[in-house]
Specification:
heterodimer; A: mainly alpha; about 65% helix; globular; B: alpha+beta; ten-stranded antiparallel β-sheet; two-stranded antiparallel sheet; about 30% helix
């Protein structure tokens, strides 16, 4: 397959997920388009280095770096402050039973940047732990552990214990990959 | 098994912004993007910019340890930056039109004032201290309609003058946050645990770069305004068109950093070369001080750097939504100094 045909396939596959990735990180309009375009440009230039199968996690890793680099430029003015605008003690006072979207987003925003990104990649972008491992550049086991820890910290910010949700709803499978991780 | 068997993560998924968003790879925007990208050959040499170096993950992905790979990236980036500093001296600036005549005159005066400031000796072990009052727009919910300007609050930052891997400190909102960059986390150690990093034994060396400088990095910048602007444009190619990119970058360097007088002056003279830069005769910073401003408008936001009319010293900045005149962010810098330890205030 020649590079251009391959890139067109990858573009077809990855365009919508990358647009959503940008949207999930608060980017809209030209900012979102720039993130997608820059990620795709890198993919095109480095098409020969892209994994032959399942290029999507690799592309998420590119997008993540592009986003972090652009976010970093004005992190002093916006990103950093955004992270501090919800203080943990404020969040802990909220109703823990609700898990309503505003409270969840606020609790997420109060976590460290890495925790936020891990939880967004899994819950918002829909990555499986093995794909998360590719994006983070670590082993699948390490990715599971990091996800588990980030999830625990999110639960703590919401003022709920780590066990509260386990098996709380019908249909929950015992012993899934998340719960089996020892921390 | 998927992570979303987990109830908390399922609830979090439901809280994602804009769940009904359905982008399409066959939309006209997507087609135009694709056509634009494939115009360039895939094997084109990568521009020597830091963000390119850090933007692509290791390949194959499960290959070398992340630490080594990223440490290497930092070293390459540092070498590249040094190379660029030498190389850009021969380049022409991208634009020759420059700021408005009034802005050029004002920036020339500001630059002359900046160049005349004293320049105390600085030791590698020291930290810069910047005390400012800031207020930013906080939006609740994903809709973007529900935005308020915070009350201005104090923000204090301490960062090593020579190495971003040395732990600094941010004090804001009653919270102390260590600032550290580790080899594992070259892109943003803020808010992350400081495993193994201590002021006495940093795990890496990073003199910083355009969007996260140290004093030593700023000292290394060219003092010729054309060379400096070319360097900024090359290093900072990113989200915005070039003039806005350069204006934003210089603005970030002016607010929460300390540059040597010659470099400060060069930054102002470089700003005078940016097309679209204008003068606002009266502007107010975050603590109500009036001044004259240098401004640029982009995507409905007018960004102003505010200076004292009497002394031409930098006071602060302000962002204004041009559609309704509302302020979307403001800052006032009260003190800049070099100190020996994070948490130490001068005098």
């Amino acid at each position: 397959v020649d590079p251009e045909t391959r890139f067109r396939e990858v573009f077809e596959l990855a365009y919508a997920p990358l647009c959503r990735y940008a949207r999930h990180r608060g980017l809209t309009g030209p900012d979102a388009e720039d993130l997608v375009a820059q990620t795709m440009e890198i993919a095109w230039r480095r098409i020969r280095e892209m994994p032959a199968t399942e290029p999507l996690p690799w592309l998420y890793a590119v997008a993540r770096n592009v986003w972090r680099n652009s976010a970093r430029r004005d992190r002093r003015r916006r990103e950093l402050l955004a992270r501090f605008r919800v203080r943990p003690q404020d969040v802990a006072c909220q109703d823990p039973g609700g898990l309503e979207p505003g409270a969840l987003r606020a609790a997420l925003a109060s976590l460290s940047g890495d925790d936020q990104e891990i939880l967004r990649l899994v819950a918002w972008d829909g990555l499986a732990p093995a794909e998360l491992a590719v994006v983070l550049g670590c082993s699948p086991n390490a990715a599971r552990t990091r996800l588990h820890r980030a999830r625990s910290r999110l639960a703590a910010r919401l003022g709920i214990g780590p066990d509260l949700q386990r098996g709380a709803l019908p249909g929950h499978k015992q012993g899934d990959g998340l719960d089996s991780v020892e921390v | 098994m998927t992570p979303l068997d987990d109830d908390l993560l399922t609830a979090l998924r439901a809280a994602r912004p804009d769940p009904g968003y359905q982008p399409s790879a066959t939309s006209p925007e997507a087609r135009a993007m694709l056509a634009r990208i494939v115009q360039a050959p895939p094997a084109a040499p990568r521009p020597a910019r830091r963000w390119w170096l850090l933007a692509a993950p290791g390949s194959p992905p499960a290959g070398r340890p992340a630490t080594r790979r990223r440490t290497a990236a930092i070293i390459i980036a540092a070498a590249t930056a040094a190379g660029l500093t030498a190389a850009v001296l021969t380049l022409q600036p991208a634009n020759t039109t420059g700021a408005s005549p009034a802005a050029m005159r004002l920036l020339a005066e500001i630059a002359a004032t900046a160049a005349a400031q004293p320049s105390p000796p600085v030791r590698d072990s020291q930290f810069w201290y910047i005390n400012s009052w800031v207020a930013y727009q906080v939006c609740n919910g994903g809709s973007g309609n529900n935005c308020l300007l915070e009350k201005p609050h104090e923000r204090q930052i301490w960062q090593s003058v020579s190495n971003l891997c040395v732990t600094g400190l941010l004090r804001e909102n009653g919270q102390d946050t260590p600032l550290a960059e580790t080899p594992n986390n070259p892109n943003g150690g803020i808010g992350t645990p400081l495993s193994g990093t201590s002021p006495s034994k940093p795990q890496c060396v990073d003199r910083g770069h355009m969007n996260d400088p140290t004093y030593r990095f700023l000292q290394s910048l060219p003092t010729d305004p054309h060379a400096l602007l070319s360097l900024i444009e090359q290093e900072m190619q990113g989200q915005q068109p070039r003039p806005q990119e350069a204006f934003t970058t210089i603005g970030d360097l002016l607010r929460e950093a300390i540059a040597p007088p010659r470099v400060s002056a060069a930054l102002y003279r470089a700003a005078a070369l940016i097309p679209g830069v204008t003068v606002v005769t009266d502007a107010t910073d975050a603590i109500g001080r009036h001044g004259v401003a240098v401004a640029m408008t982009y995507q409905g936001v007018q960004s102003e750097w505010i200076f004292s009319k009497q002394t031409l010293q930098y006071l602060g900045e302000r962002d204004i939504n041009t559609a309704n005149g509302s302020i979307t962010g403001e800052a006032a810098v009260l003190q800049r100094a070099f100190v020996d330890h994070p948490g130490q205030t001068p005098g």
